[in-house]
Structures are given as structure tokens and as C-alpha cells.
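ok so I'm stuck.
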Amino acid sequence: MLNIHYFASIRERLNKETEEIEFSQSVSTVDELITHLQNIDSATEAAFSSAGKILVAVNQTVVNRDHVLTDNDEIAFFPPMTGG
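replied:
not stuck anymore, here's the structure
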């Protein structure tokens, strides 16, 4: 299983904080996971429409899109932090 957590505007758009999806070799990188999630429905596609600006952490470490996922990973999606 992949344990997915959504934060801030992503969580608001999806109206959920977490979900679990079955780990699959066809979804072996963060980028492949994002593509998989975008194909679920229009709300998820919209939430990830600016995927290039979304930060991703795997097991509490920020990673690049080519990061290889393994079973039981915890993945968090969140928008870039801003200050002011």
C-alpha cells in the first residue's frame, strides 16, 4: 500500500486528507503516481493541474519526481510554502 496525505489547497480541492492505494510496479515513481492520480477523476486532475508546483515528500523527506516508490511508503503532497 501507498499511504497518501494531502495538505492545504490540495486537500481542500479533493475534500480528503488521506487515502491508501495499492502499490503497483506500474506506479513506481512519484511522477507515475501523479499521473495515476490525475486519471482518477476530474477533481483529482484539477487538484494536480499545476503538478510542477506541488512539492512531494516520501517518508517525510522532500523528493524529486523521479524518486522510486516502494510498498508502504508515505507520500505527502503540498503546495510550495510562501511567506510574507
